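Case 204 in the screening queue. Each case pairs one protein sequence with one candidate compound; here the compound is manganese (II) ion. For every case the pipeline is the same: read the inputs, emit a complex structure as tokens, and attach any notable structural observations.

Predict complex for case 204.
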Amino acid sequence: MAFNLPDLPYDFGALEPHIDARTMEIHHDKHHAVYVNNLNAAIEKHPDLGDWSLEKLLTDINSVPEDIRGAVRNHGGGHANHSLFWEIMSPNGGGEPSGDLADAINSTFGGFGDLQEKLSSAAVGQFGSGWGWLTVDGSGSLGIESSANQDNPLMHARTPILGVDVWEHAYYLKYQNVRPDYVKNWWNTINWDAVTSRYQAAKG
Ligand code: MN
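Case 204 output:
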């Protein structure tokens, strides 16, 4: 079974002024498409993996045959990361979460402002290309982390529920080298309903 590039759930310009249309177009149609194509090319070499889901490939990355493990890590991670990224943003995004997720954020980090500060700091501080994440571990606890390249938290048993892409391709056209401004404005795009759904599913 081949993996497919998901449609962007809104127009390229829908997240302006926070993320510009040209960046979204290149990011989705070129960058994400390459991850999907290269993941499929790797998987084709091992038909025995044909029924593995993307989540299983990442969670069990050390069981993936060694000759394609690096490609699955980079391109499978890239496919998963970007699929999440499009979904956790919305033209009607921003604001703060409510309910269980808000309670968990308050008890774990102190408050929503503390979450923003800590996740922004992790994302801005990631050296080179990578991601900043809000994750849920096996006991249902929230955590903040960053990852290099296209590594996904599933590779070390944590489920990402919110992530920010800090590769330069995600922001350079509009923000050039000023990654902190991009991350600051990215908060205005968050679809908290989508993040809450992921939180509920992850904590079980
Ligand atoms: Mn990207």
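Case 204 observations:
- The beta strands are 130-136, 142-148, 159-165.
- The longest strand covers residues 130-136.
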